[in-house]
Specification:
The protein has about 210 residues and is of the alpha/beta class. The chain is built from six helices and seven strands. The chain has helices at about 20-35, 40-45, 60-65, 80-90, 125-135, 165-175, and strands spanning about 50-55, 75-80, 95-100, 110-115, 135-150, 180-185, 190-195. It has a seven-stranded mixed β-sheet, sandwiched between helices. The longest helix has 14 residues, at about 20-35. The radius of gyration is 16 Å and the shape is globular.
Amino acid sequence: MGIASWVSGGPVKSPFALPTGLLGHLAGLFMLWTNRQAELLPCLGVKPGEHVLEVGYGPGGLVKLLGRTGAARVCGVDPSPEMRSQAARRAKGADLRLGAAEDTGFAEDSFDCVVAVNNVALWPDLEAGLRELRRVTRPGGRVVVAWHGGTSPSMIARHLLLSEDELDRIRRALEETFDEVDRTELKSLTVFRARVIAHGDSPGVPRASG
């Protein structure tokens, strides 16, 4: 059985949703081959000394690139043990854990930058995931959420594009949870960027007590 998706309202029956076993191993290699994520790095703007979290790191392609930015700490969460194993081999030194967008397991205000690439449509609860991303982002930090699309998506990615209504829902959910939201079209990705100016200003994002 696949994991649930807010887009379909039901389970996603795909080896890419929660890679396991041999099919999961092959799915990870396929994702590494097809997802060229270097174009996303300028959107992240990672500075030396910053702490960065990738949600849904998959086989570890972007985590490996983040390790070359000068970030003081590179972390990740992914629900798949198979992906954790693959990513750990490619991104030595990164703190890679099992988890999900709605439950990262990290402390409040842990990161300067949080990024999720090509997995937002697989989250069971879009709003819960974004609230969690805001919780772990420091004031002054930023969140980047990207999905297949852009100005020149590949033939494979064209079958995965979200509708404008679905993209609008992502933008609206970001605007309800974050500050200064914008949308950018890269060559192969539709990218939403948002900032955290101060905690407690958005509905459903209370400060932790104690």
